[in-house]
Amino acid sequence: MGENSDFAGFLQDTKASYVLSNVAEVVERILTFVPTKSLLQIASVCTLWRNCARRVLRTQQKLTWVSSCGPSNTEVHALCSNLAEELEKVFLLPRTVLAMVDSEAFNGQAYCHRHSKAKKSRNGPDTVEELNFLFPKGCDIMGIATPGIVLTPNGSCSNPPQEYQEGEAGFAVMFPSMEGIRIKPFHFCKKMFSPTALEEAGLVNNPELRVVLMFVYEAYKSGGVQFLNQILEPLEKSKALIAGGLVESVFSPPRQCCGQSAYGVVGLALSGHKVQGASVLLEQDVSSPKAAEATIRRLKAAKIPERNTLGFMFACVGRGQSYYNNQSNVEADAFRKVFPNVPLFGLFGNGEIGCDRIVKDDYTLCDTDTDSLQHEYTTIMTLVHLG
Known about the structure:
Blueprint: H1 2-22, H2 24-31, H3 36-42, H4 47-59, E1 64-69, H5 78-86, E2 94-102, H6 103-106, H7 125-134, E3 140-146, E4 148-151, E5 162-164, E6 169-176, E7 182-189, H8 195-200, E8 209-217, H9 224-238, E9 241-247, E10 249-252, E11 264-271, E12 275-282, H10 289-297, E13 309-316, H11 330-338, E14 344-349, E15 352-353, E16 357-360, E17 363-366, E18 374-375, E19 379-386
Parallel strand pairs: 2-3, 8-9, 13-14
Antiparallel strand pairs: 1-6, 2-6, 3-10, 4-5, 4-14, 7-11, 8-11, 9-15, 12-16, 12-19, 13-19, 15-18, 16-17
């Protein structure tokens, strides 16, 4: 009887081995349940598994993110150690990453979980080295430090977004390579800026440009405002949606072209017919929860699908809890009431860039000039849909 059981088990194992070695449909179905980092390792088993893994990777088009809040248990920022853990579970191969951390906790720390001691430079080479280690080779990483953070906790798009004007917080939004969509990072400083550089970044002479997320660092330095105007002027003519803010610093990509104290602009140019966007400006007179919700609700007019859509909130450090009579999380809560299934990310900064605008299909609705793209004591609330 025991011999018969052993033989039956042998036959069962043989059948399973045959299926897993020869039936692509079964292998491909199984691999859809495997996180991407493990999937890349599995792809080296055999030719069949490699081909199945490639097909599965092409289907992973859903945006994902990792976020952290609260004090770190290590000497480095909480987002870094959380990324090292959470990336093992991600079902996506990141092609572009937008990471933001609060500048207060980040200041003086190297963004690196492999080193036992924090370094004395927020823009040191260890930062970029570690980010490159965590993410796949060839992944474009944009790292920004800013006075305050807006994030959606890990797990679900419907998790309530939170505003963090104080305390340790950060997020990393990961974009895969998507058919029909191009996400191109750009970085300009005084030494690197020219009309040719704008064109190479896809910001001018690009009829498919839909959304530009832009972040200005060291803008208070002499010449910083004029430099920003030079960039905004041609962008305004493109009729793309422009949104962003003035931040504390940029730690990735590395700034090799100019000194650490020089001003500059980084961002992402999103192009392609599948990209849609809409933004509204919460002006200085929007100072109650009811008024904030009413303004954000105007985004509904764009009729942008909520699936594969991100919300971005770029707010002034002067807003938040103190602006709303000591009520916390007002604008993030208002956004969730209107868009309960769209994750929200963003920053509190030293100035805001954007306006009321809808970019959808082959048309743009806007009423602005270059001067009105720059604001203080406001919030830019933005939707970006990626097909």
